[in-house]
Amino acid sequence: MIKPQVKIEMVVMEDPTFEAGETRIARIVLTNLAAQQFTYLFELYLDVTKAATSGVWQVVIEPNASVTVGVYVVMPLAAGTYEVFVDVWHETTLLAHYKATEDITIAITPAVLVESITWS
Hints:
Helix content: under 10%
Distance between the termini: 84 Å
């Protein structure tokens, strides 16, 4: 019996500083190390508390092949630095728990809107 095996090669981030509440795309390279095709489930999340998550996604990977997947993540509303994790499962078995080498920073930029000026 061939067992599913997966390798997470990288989480690609163009700039690790994001604005609170904005939606960004993370790109993850997954490699199926097994000699047959498998369906994997994966989730990218920020901080162990899952301050933000991509939700759980599914991908089918051919034997000994790699795929790059892009997932949307809405950044947390709280400013701070967050660790980035990816978990990968086959069915109900956790195969990989990956911590990215780079944390992300959530910033809140001051903004003001002047709508009108009235005189009396």
